[in-house]
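Help needed: design a sequence for this.
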């Protein structure tokens, strides 16, 4: 590399971006070559950007993650990955809030708040209308107050339903089903009032409550108190609320169907979907997933059914394949929105990892045999052989042995969980539990969903 010791301005010149197919080497003077100057300048720039982003993430993590989510809001996989990163940083992602959300993801206290632009069916005009009404009149007090103050030509019924179902009105009224029922009446009521105002007419009920239609005197209208309401109804079941949330936001936000069993499930599935690419090809792995989609296809020969599965966990969304033999065995379990424990192997196709499903169980039916062992017992070959013999007696046919056995090793003040290999899983949890206890090994049976 030749060191440049002088520079001379040539004034304003046309500049061209030259694409070079091989090395980035350029003639400087007298046949001397500047080698790889393009690469090195880029390396410096990338290093500097890496330093800047690392600094921001370390010192302004809320603002940094909010900006990252906003910049990638159109990429579902990336947003889910960054939401998982937020969880690891102890940052919660809150669903949209009609009285606090802005256009994009924004920091709020110690959390990050979903922006209106991330809600499906809510367009830019609707967002601008909502923010303008909120800035002029303050926080919305109810659904009726909201409908009365925004322009319903911009914020249509479909947009309102989306805002309700994704939780944007939860801090005003947590019963989303009630809000949907009220909307059927309130929407028409608000439209009627808008037409009256446009024609300069008053409303009998407004006059009775002494309410002014003058919007320039900063008086807050309370006409919404006279708005019609539907008969009381129970709220939607939690699974239905979460399904609607995901449909409109692309993710589970207020909760996730897998969260309640995450701690216990880690014994069975210590890795998540984002870590699949790191696993060695051909090694059996296990994952706790939600099943988002099932596409039944036929093999190339056209005579055997198989399935392509869309799955997700708390960290990512991915694709899995169930070939004919596995599909025949587990097809009855493949219901969309079901929670599954799936076992399989990683194969690489076109340099990309692919999860090949070999077996599956519904989370609701999964039981665990929890075997307590002291550190002294784990160091005693005879004790371990006794455990091995009992488990072998109760495993039988490997295809039928679907109850995992977890060894809980007590050492001083720590407890370590170890998932025993498939050859030690048992067919019947109760008989294995009784045999282990009778042999002096403290054991209990746990339901995965009940822990």
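Sure. Designed sequence:
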């Amino acid at each position: 590399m030749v060191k440049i010791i002088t520079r001379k301005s040539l004034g304003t010149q046309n500049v061209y971006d030259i694409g070079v197919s091989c090395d980035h080497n350029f003639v400087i003077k007298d046949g001397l070559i500047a080698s790889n100057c393009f690469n090195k300048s880029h390396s410096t720039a990338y290093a500097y950007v890496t330093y800047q982003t690392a600094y921001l993430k370390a010192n302004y993590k809320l603002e940094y993650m909010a900006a990252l989510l906003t910049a990638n809001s159109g990429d579902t996989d990336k947003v889910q990955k960054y939401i998982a990163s937020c969880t690891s940083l102890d940052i919660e992602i809150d669903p949209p809030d009609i009285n606090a959300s802005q256009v994009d993801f924004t920091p709020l206290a110690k959390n990050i708040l979903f922006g209106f632009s991330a809600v499906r069916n809510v367009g830019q005009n609707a967002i601008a209308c909502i923010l303008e009404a909120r800035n002029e009149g303050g926080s919305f007090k109810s659904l009726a107050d909201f409908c009365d103050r925004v322009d319903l030509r911009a914020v249509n019924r479909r947009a309102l339903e989306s805002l309700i179902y994704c939780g944007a009105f939860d801090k005003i009224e947590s019963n989303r089903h009630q809000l949907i029922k009220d909307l059927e009446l309130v929407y028409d009521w608000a439209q009627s009032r808008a037409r009256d105002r446009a024609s300069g007419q008053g409303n009998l009920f407004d006059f009775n409550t002494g309410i002014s239609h003058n919007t320039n005197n900063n008086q807050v209208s309370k006409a919404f108190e006279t708005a019609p309401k539907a008969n009381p109804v129970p709220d939607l079941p939690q699974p239905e609320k979460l399904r609607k949330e995901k449909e409109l936001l692309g993710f589970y936000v207020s909760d996730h169907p897998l969260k309640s069993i995450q701690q216990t499930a880690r014994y069975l599935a210590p890795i998540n979907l984002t870590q699949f690419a790191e696993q060695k090809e051909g090694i059996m792995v296990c994952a706790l997933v939600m099943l988002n989609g099932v596409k039944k296809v036929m093999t190339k020969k056209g005579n055997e059914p198989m399935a392509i599965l869309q799955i997700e966990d708390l960290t990512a969304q991915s694709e899995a394949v169930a070939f004919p033999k596995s599909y025949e065995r587990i097809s009855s379990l493949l219901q969309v929105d079901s929670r599954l424990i799936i076992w399989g192997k990683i194969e690489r196709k076109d340099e990309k990892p692919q999860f090949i499903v070999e077996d599956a169980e519904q989370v609701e039916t999964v039981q665990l045999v929890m075997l307590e062992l002291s550190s002294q017992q784990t160091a005693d070959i005879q004790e371990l052989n006794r455990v091995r013999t009992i488990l072998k007696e109760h495993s039988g046919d490997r295809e039928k042995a679907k109850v995992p056995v977890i060894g809980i090793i007590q050492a001083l003040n720590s407890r370590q969980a170890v998932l025993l290999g498939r050859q030690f899983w048992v067919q019947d949890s109760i008989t294995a539990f009784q045999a282990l206890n009778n042999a002096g090994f403290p054991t209990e049976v746990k339901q995965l969903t009940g822990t």
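The first strand starts at residue 25 and ends at 27.
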